[in-house]
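I'll show a typical protein example:
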Amino acid sequence: SRMSTYALEAHCVGVILRRPHQVYRVDRALQAEGLARISPEDFQHVDHQSTVRLLLESVDQDIAEPLNFVLSSLSLPMMELADDLLARTADLDPNEDRVLEDLLRVLIDLRERSTRQNIEYLRFMMQEAQEQGDLKASQYQETMVQHTKVLQSLHRARGQYTSRTALPH
């Protein structure tokens, strides 16, 4: 069964809440595949975006433990969300490498989904522009080509992480 985007995002953010320093390993692994580092834009849900923004800040500061830094910065409704995210990942595998691979697979899946959506949207915009003889058509096409290249890199990266273990359900 394909997990909903919300569930995948929640899993991802929950794992990072529990293991904020995995962010560095995630970034290294993504960059090794020629992919961009993790960012709030990887997530569609605003609550997840703002939590990830805080998490990224939290690992860049030395004043507090990352999780404490995040929790002390959250509003009350956001605290409830954080509780839910932590509850979802309560039985996290103690093996850090497996946690990392799992995280990377889910992130890659999320990126593939949003990149495909972007390509669909651009294809639609391009057709509209072409029909109206709009010069923007070639810009859309260029952006589509870039997105397609990203999709290919994601696909390659996915092969790295799915050959070893199966996606969580």
